[in-house]
Structures are given as structure tokens and as C-alpha cells.
Amino acid sequence: MNTIKQITKLHTDIERAIFYTDSNTTYDELIGLLHVFANLINDFEGDNDEWLYIGECSSATPDSLLIGAYWHLTEWHGGQYHPTYAAMCSIGQVFQPGMTNGPEEESSEHDVYTALNTMAEKHSENKSVAHS
After folding, report:
1. Cα separation values, 107 from 1, 62, 76, 91, Å
2. What domain range is 105 assigned to?
């Protein structure tokens, strides 16, 4: 059974990777963490209130991380067989956007979305430079 301790640890790791400059987590590693995080939450058998309030006083709560990451991945996934698509699908098991169309401006979801877009752009630039 997935525990709050596991979810809390991943939340902290993901938040650090997104919002703190001292993180050594790569974009690809972060996508993997988001994939595992969404699966842990999806499989959590406890009360949702237990994981929803993790990180209340931090940069982003778990739901904000998932919503921002979902919208980021809708624009940045690498196709059906890419790890980014798998992460988006895992998040989609927890966050089902329905008829919405992106994170609200000036929200923590939007902060996550923007930060991930910046990371993806840098990752993409670095890959281009490495192949030159």
C-alpha cells in the first residue's frame, strides 16, 4: 500500500526540482518522478484529504503539481511511446480536466506549468547543442 510518507517524499523532491535552483534533478528525471508520483496518488487507498493537504505552506500542493504538469505535458510530450506521454497518462488518471483548457493565470498550477515549460525549453536547447 502506498503511504503518505512516500507521497510526501516525492512531493518534496518534485517541488525542489521545479522551484529550487540547487536541485540537480534533470528534466527527464523530473518527468519520471511525476509519473511515479501520479501512480502513487492514483493507487492510494486512504482518504484523499490525506494527500491533498501535503505541502499546504509550500510552493505547490500535490494537486497543483499534477495540474500544472498535466497541462505542460499536453504541449511537451514526445509522442505515444515517449516517457513524457506515459507521465501525462498517469497524471490523467488523477486529474481529469474535462472541458477546462489550461491552468488559471496567477495560480500555483500556472507556476508549475510555467516552470516546467522553462525547464523543457532548456532541456531541448541542451539536447540540440549536444547533437551539434
Report:
1. 32, 13, 20, 19
2. 4-131
Integer Cα distance of 33 and 115 in angstroms: 16
Q: What is the pLDDT of residues 76-100, one digit of tens each?
A: 988 888 999 999 999 999 998 887 8
Please report where in the chains the cell 500544472 appears, as a residue: 68
User: Contact, 18 vs 115, CB < 8 A?
Assistant: yes
Count of domains observed in the chain: 1
CA 8 – CA 127 distance, rounded (Å)? 31
Report DSSP letters for 17-57, one per residue: HHH-TT----HHHHHHHHHHHHHHHHH--S-HHHHHTTTTT
